[in-house]
Amino acid sequence: MDHLQIIVDEIAEEMALAVERGKVADYIPNLAAVSPAHFGMAIVSVDGSVHVAGDAEQAFSVQSITKVFGLTMALGAVGDALWSRVGREPSGSAFNSIVQLETEKGIPRNPFINAGAIVVSDILLARYEPREAIAEFLRFMRALAGDDTIVIDDHVARGEEQTGFRNAALASYMRAFGNVRHPIEKTLGIYFHQCALAMNCRQLALAGRFLMCGGRNPETGRSVVSPQRARRILALMLTCGHYDGSGEFAYRVGLPGKSGVGGGILSIAPGIASIAVWSPGLNERGNSHLGTLALERLVQRTGWSVFEPVSPDSGRAGRKIGSHFVD
Ligand code: GLU
Known about the structure:
Radius of gyration: 18 Å
Oligomer: single chain
Shape: globular
Strand order of the largest sheet: 3-2-9-8-7
Bound molecules: glutamic acid
Number of helices: 14
Mean pLDDT: 94
Distance between the termini: 25 Å
CATH topology of the largest domain: Beta-lactamase
């Protein structure tokens, strides 16, 4: 068995035995029913190899991880003009917080908090009709993952439509500032359907490949975004991808990552690997408790942190795995 598979298996074994598993999100009806016993992990390496363990083939609600892909699509549609409506600073606030919007005149701090992603959905509506935007988003995800079986879970989307009062408040408030420009039901319709995407760890790690490869999908060879845009999306993931837990995630894991309340995390080791983990129990900041721990273990054992010194000639991808001390 190869070295990386041994690491992935050992991490999955440790996570299966963990007693403290966090708390499953219960404010979205369909998520409350998911068992915290799950743990899955998938790593797609730059050479195309895939290593999986645990429940890596079981679909879960991708939720806020989709904000990375929604942003990618919206940047493709309107380019850097997007940044006149959304900031690029960590919020230091909860994922669904409204407080900063008042002093900052309806401009959300970044595209990865709910308010920011709602504006991104509104930007997509300027280009597409609502149904078309959702269909286009799904097509985009299927193409990135190379998998046409990926679907949006309508029950999850409807559940959020019925209970997403905070998101409705955020959208209404930003409409008052002119930063949501369409009827809020339409904008939120895109946002909720995007969040309700169902994928497993393997599919998610495959969808993240373009971010590990400087913006190019290594399977098709096609450019999804420019290398500069890929670097910038990764910078936002590192600084804003875990809400008010982003600093802690950078400290513990040291990789760009984006979490979702479904318990998934997509994390990228640039030039090395695209990694997806899933465990539904969340910590107090709304990020997967065991998912974070699993990524911390992976980085301790592989040295894949972006803060790891590398020799100029070997480059990041040239570094041997498994040669690091556990701290
Ligand atoms: N759909 C969720 C919400 O809007 C996304 C939050 C998350 O995944 O962190 O509340």
